[in-house]
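# step 3/5: fold
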Amino acid sequence: MRYQSYFNLKLFHNYYREKICPDFTLESTLACQHLLQGHRCLLKSSINGVQILVPLETPQQPLIPLDRSLTLTFLLRLNNPAFISFTQLDPRFQMGHSLYVFSNETLTASDSSEMASVVIQRSDLTKPAVTQSPIEARCAATLATLSPHQRQTVFGLVEIHNNGSLTADFSQSSEFKVTLAAKQQIWAYYLVVNKGTSAQTFSIQDKNKDKSAAISFETAIIASGDRIVTALQNRFPNSQSILLKSTNPVTCQQIGRPQLQLLKQDDAKPWISHLPNPPNQHGTQVINLLRDL
C-alpha cells in the first residue's frame, strides 16, 4: 500500500532563532484517532508538529475517500511554562480560563497555509448548547471527552477542516502553520546610585552592528510611588535611582543581546561592557552601582 503525505501541520515562533516552536505537543483527540484509523491514515509527530499520511488507491484517489464534512481536531498541550513570558498572547487570553483555537476553517485555497486563531473562554463552553457558536459547541464537545485534569492541561485546539485549503491533488501535500509572535515590551533599567548623582551621568548604548536592530535608550522620569524605587530606597536608604528606558518596545528573542553597554559621562571605557538583558517576564532590570561609584 502506497502512502502519500496529505498535510503537514507545523508550529513556529519568532522568539526562537530557527523559528521552530518546540513548546507544545500536538495530540490527536479520540475522535480524530478514530477518523484516522477509519481511513487507514498514519500520523507522524515531529518536534514542532504532525504529518498525516493517507493511503492511495491510485495516484489521485485515496483508498478510502474523505468525507467533505470531516474535521480533524488536535489538542495543543503546553510543555514549557516559560512560554507565557516571551509570547505576545491575545489580551483576552487567561491561562486556565481560556482556550486558543487555531483553524483552517476560513482558508479557501490550498496555497493559503497560515491558520487563523480565536480565543474562547472556558466559561462560555458551559452555556446552553442553543446559545453557543459553532466553534464553542465543537470545543465543548471535545473537552467533554477529557478528564477534568486533562481539560486543565490543554492550552488550545487545532482544527483541520476538509475544505478548499486541503489539496485535491493527492500527489501533493498541504502545508498548515501556526505562527506565534514574540512579546514586545519596553525595557527598563533602574540604576541604584549615590544621592546627588545627576540623571545624565549614565547612558546605555547598543553596539549592534546592524543599526536597524539597535535599541536606543533615554532617561525617563520616575513616577511618584514607583514600587521598584520604593523597594530600592527601603533597602538602600542613602541611594537614589536613575531610570533608563528603551524608546521603543523590544522584541523578546532566544539569543540575548550582548552589545548593550552602560556608559558613564566623561569615562572613556564602558562602565559595564555587557549589560545583562532584563527578564522576559517583566522587562525590568536593576543595576546596583553603589559600590562602583
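# step 4/5: annotate
The CA atoms of residues 28 and 80 lie 19 Å apart.
# step 5/5: archive (pending)
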